[in-house]
Amino acid sequence: MGYKFAIDRGGTFTDVFVEYPDKSQHVYKLLSEDYHYRDAPSEAIRRLISRYEGFEMGYPIETKNIDWIRMGTTVATNALLERKGEPMAFCVSKGFKDLLHIGNQARPSIFDLTCKCPGVLYSNVVEVDERVIPGKENCGIFPENSVGVIVEQQLDKVKLTKNLINLRNKGIKSIAVALMHSYCFSEHELEVEKIALELGFTNISLSHKVMEMIKIVPRGHTACADAYLTPHIQVYLKGFMSNFRDNLKVSIDSSKLSGFSELSQLLYPIFLISIQ
Asked: Under a CB-based contact definition with an 8 Å cutoff, are residues 154 and 167 in contact?
């Protein structure tokens, strides 16, 4: 039996519960941000193990006696509220560049003349030259393939490549892709992903993977949130894991951001994190 840690990493304080190998328990609190240490949760783990073992443990922390670490964090929430996520761009079907700015016209007060539109997360928009139409036989629109769509215009790869290179030159490494009808025809989004990866983009959030639903507005918003927050959370997680001697296996509970697939392949012990 080893150490078991349950951690709540908030914006001000970090609270830690530990069960020691002898089944005794202890609760510990420290500041989430302090110049004396790099990361509050790992510092708390180091201090609690040192206290139990009777000697001062340094970094990196030995993990062979840790059974698991479960941590809930508001890192994503804080980054969203404070607009401190990753600079990102939005790739959308041509003609829909203002889609998320317009949104669905929902208004808390319908007669308020001073109603302000909420801001968007992206800093740039790329209009993807492509067009897919859903087939409807009762309307005389007969699908061309088994997924029930008509590809009216194939993806313009040359133009897309040029636009993505311009984005890359601006320092943008994360993009969200939301194309019309990608919930049932994902090939064009996958082609965008392939080109973006070849150009060196580090995070590509595809709407049909993040939220496979018909309506493009919520699908686009969700893809943008994924592209905006996933790199930020990855940086935090990698920083946390760098404080341990052995690799950690990451299992995401609650909100499952698509960018964590590579982290989930890491090894023992298990690190469970709940993104709030």
From this structure: no
CA 76 to chain centre: 8
Global pTM reads: 0.82
d(CA 117, CA 114): 10
The set of residues, in sequence order, having a beta carbon less than 8 Å from that of 235 and lying 6+ positions away, is none
Helices (H), the chain: 40-53, 75-81, 99-102, 157-169, 187-198, 207-210, 216-241
Find residue 73's DSSP bridge partners.
9, 275
Cβ pair 51, 44 in contact under 8 A: no
Tokens for 221?
Answer: 């918003």
- Asked if residues 14 and 44 have their Cβ atoms less than 8 Å apart, the reply is yes
Q: Closest Cα to residue 75, out of 40, 44, 47?
A: 40
Distance of CA 241 to the CA centre of its chain: 17
> Which pLDDT tens digit goes with each residue over 29-76?
999 999 999 999 999 999 999 999 988 888 888 888 888 899 988 888
DSSP 220: H
Which residues have C-beta within 8 Å of that of residue 246, sequence separation ≥ 6? 62, 63, 64, 267, 268, 269
205 forms bridges with which residues in the sheet? Answer: 176
CB contact set of 266 (below 8 Å; sequence gap of 6+): 241, 247, 248, 249, 250
Spell out the residues 6+ positions from residue 94 whose beta carbon is closer than 8 angstroms to its own. Answer: 127, 128, 129, 130, 131
